[in-house]
Every structure is written in C-alpha cells, then in structure tokens.
Amino acid sequence: MKYIISYEKPHNHYINIEFRAGKINQEELLIQLPSWRPGRYELGNFAKNIQKFAVSDENGNSLRFNKITKDCWKVQTTGISEVRVKYNYFASELNAGSTFLDASQLYMNPVNCCVYIPDRINESCELELILPADYSVAGALAHSPDGKAGEKCFVLSDFHELADTPFIASNSLQHNQFICFGVEFNVWFQGECKPDWPKLTSDFLKFINEQLLVMKEFPSKSYHFLYQILPNKIYHGVEHKASTVIALGPGYELMKENLYEDLLGVSCHELFHAWNIKTIRPIEMQPYDYTKENYSKLGYVCEGVTTYYGDYFLFRSGAYSQEQYFTAFDERMQKHFDNFGRFNLSVADSSYDTWLDGYVPGVPNRKTSIYDEGCLLAFVTDIFIRKNSKNKYSLDDVMLYLYNEFALMGKGYSDTDYKSAVEHFAGASYDLIYYNYISSASDYEPILRDAMEYIGCELALIPAAKFHESSLGVKASEVNGACRITAVYPNSAADSAGISVNDEVLSVNGMQIRPDGSGTNFMEWCNYFGNIPFTLTVSSSGIVKQLKIIPQLNQYYKKACIKILASPDKNQKDNFNKWSGVKF
What we know:
By secondary structure, this protein is an alpha+beta fold.
C-alpha cells in the first residue's frame, strides 16, 4: 500500500492524495477515512474537507463506489488486483492537530486526511512526498531507500504509525538536535521566531532527563518537537509516540518570560504523553478505533496525571522555580474553585463526556475538567502514596508499573487496574479518593488541604481583587464589543437579583458601560461604587432590565493559592524535600 502526496497551487490549500492498494482479491472493498484523531476526544469528521473523490484500477479504469457512512466508501473490485483512490483535501487550518498547506509549508497530520482499508490496517505502507527540491521534512518518518530527486519516500509499519506521525515540510525550518540517555531529540521551529538554542537545550535537557530517570527507558529511538510558531496568540499541543506538534504565538514573544514558560510547560506535558496515553493506554483505546468514539472514564489519568507531571517535572528538574510551579498549580486550583460543575459531574464522567462537550464551555456548571481536576487528583494521589508508604513510593512508581506491566505487554489498563496499582504502592485503601472524588462530583478542598499539609503547605483562599467578582458574584468580559456576563456564582447576590450568563451590561448605577476591549469600565465602576446597592441595567435576550443587587463583601470567587506554612515541622520539611527534590 502506498500514499502519494502532491499539490499544485498551495495558496488554494488543496492537497492531492493518491492511495494505492494492491493484492485485491475480493468483490467489494471498504475505504475508510478517520472520524477523529487521538489526542482530541471528539469527532473531527475530516471527510468534510474532501472536495473530489475518484476510484480506479491500475489501468485508470473507473470503479463504481458509493458512500455508506459520512467517511466510508464501498468500492466494487470484482476482477481487479489494484485499487487507486485519488482525492483532494482542503488544508487551511493551522493548529497542533490540523493539516495545512500554503506557499511556505506542507504540514500534515495523516490521521486527518489519509484513507485506509479497515481489514488491512496492520499492514505496512509507504509514503511518498512530491515536494520542492529545497524542502526538508521534519518529523519521525523513517526514510525509504527509493527516494528520487524532488521526492521524499518513507516507510511505516502500519496505518497506526502513519496516523501517529505528523510532519512539516518546508525550506524555512530551524533545527537543533541533542542526545539524552542515548535517545536523539530533535527540536524544529516553523514560522517567524528567534530561538535561543543554548537556553532551550539546557532547559529541555533538565525535564527530559527527569522524565527518563523516572520511566527508565523511552518508548521510541528518537523524538521530535515540532513547533508551529504563529504571528498571533495561540497555545495548543498534541501528543504522539515519537513526536509532538505544538502551536505557539506570537513569534516575537517566544523567548519572553510568559510565552517561554508556556513553551516549557506544554513541551514537558506532551513529552510525558509519549508514555502516558501513547503507550500506557486505557483498555478502551487498545487499539484505537478511528471510526467512532472511544469512550473511557480514564481521562483523569491520561490527561490529568500528564498535566500534573507537565509542571511538576519542570519544578523537580530545576527548569521551573518554586514560584513558577506554585503559580501554575494555583491556576489549576483556581479553575477548580471557579467551576461549579464540580458539584454536578465527576471527573470520571466528565472524561466520558469529552466526546459530547469536552472542548467547549457547554452549559453553565455542568462538568469538570480532566486536565485541571485530573491534575489536582494526581497531586493528591501522589501525596497519598508517599504518606502511606512513608515516602518509599510515589505516583512515579505507579506510572512505571503501568508502563512495564501493561504498555510493554501490549495491554490496555482499566480504572480498576489503576486503582489497584495505587493501592499496591500506598499499602492502603484508595477507596475514599476513588469513590468520593474521582467517581463522584465533589469539592476537592478537604483532600487538597490534607495533601498540602503533609508537605508543609496550606491552601489559602483570598478575596478576589475585583469588586464585581468578590462581592456581586459575576465575571464579565468584552465579547463582540459588548460587556457580557460570562459567569454567575450560584446563589450569589447577582444570582439572587436575576443576572444571567450572556447578559449584556448597559450601565452601572446609571453610568453607561462602553467596553474598551477588556470590559474594564464595568470593573472600574463597580470598584468605584463599592459597598452600596447596585442597579445594573442589562440586556437579556434583547429585553432591557433594571436589576437591584445588594453586595455581599468578599463572599465569592476567592483566589486560591498554595503557600508554605509559617512554621512547618521537621517531618513536613523532609516530606517537601522528598516530593520536590528541592530543599525546603
């Protein structure tokens, strides 16, 4: 089987794809395009990007076919030995999981746009790229010896490897390479930016080394960090076994403090995915079924544990300071305390429902986050194991166990397997956390306080700085030129007054609101009037209302922070040192 990729007018964004399959010996053949891509647990319906689709035999004779689902075609193949499918794919979206073509690059995630024969998904295949002569190819593709001038040829062990191997082809790639634990790591940048290679290499080696110390070996012989650097603000990463694609921007801020911290954070996160989800995989995704939803309740492990380690490894390795780590941890906690879905849908059930509304806001206060709540649960679980084993074991041991006993054995693990592994290393029952916080909708404050105390820290809840948040119970921002209510604290002063999400604020105590791009006028007027009754004029679904609100000082949307205790004891200091690798 072979794929031939070419294009004619890159500014039109259409990629030409030819798929050839020999050894045909049946009367009918199914041709399937994936419905989703691993790493994003929602349907992508990629077939909507196909404009033309034709099927012929090796002599160019057209074959009859009909579409039987949104992304599957049945081809009549009586008496032929080879099928050739020719189609084009519209590639105009540029993010970490898309496929994109313009005059500067060909960027492909084959899982978006490459068809396959379901019965032959495990057979090897070839990929031929017809590219400009000065183009290089960045990615984990293995070269075939059959390349010709102006072409790049590669071999893949099966469709699963092809689907998991994105690449960037361009004449403007910036590249650096280094070795850690005998593994070759490649860093590629596509887009306008000026990488500080010595700084990047130094910081990358810190967190890569830390991950390899924990997991003992790397799942691939080499690894590629592929960065799409855009001129606009973007933050997005997608994991693969031997690579990751990360979209960041704007390029002029790449090496500045905030975006550089984001670069380190997402890079460390995506690298740990090479183990956690790409090799250590839930039983429901072993193997992937690209044609439909792959439901699992283990998102709190796949994404939550990875989110925890994404920041934690940076701290342990010295790439992040304690202040940087605590700031990142505070952000996770803040999202938890500001999300009242924690009382309605557990993180396990929210994992299942990623396929329904996991990547959009959804209805207010419905669900939790497998990333944020999952991260907090991973921290609590790590401390749970350390506390009960007297610091002999940790979550590190659980992940290494799952890698050795499941991933390397070609098996997927279940939620029961994860629970059993935690209990094995803790030497204690995990029931309280598993049933009351993972499987049930709960406020994590009690278990967070308990975990923090073990390492000499505490959870501080500080009044929000913005008066409308702390005392009225609303969040607001500029949306399409209007000041809109984006969140309402349940049973708050604003909620009792009848304020709704998406209401447009027109005035505060008679003062007209004219958003300046961030909704700050609303904030400033609320701060100005302070602790007096408020009259908000709002437009709610086109109906103008005047609503009276009695402020309740500092009751809502408190700021969550992890802080060092004023007087930690010797044991707490020792626990902190063993957890963080940093002297208390």
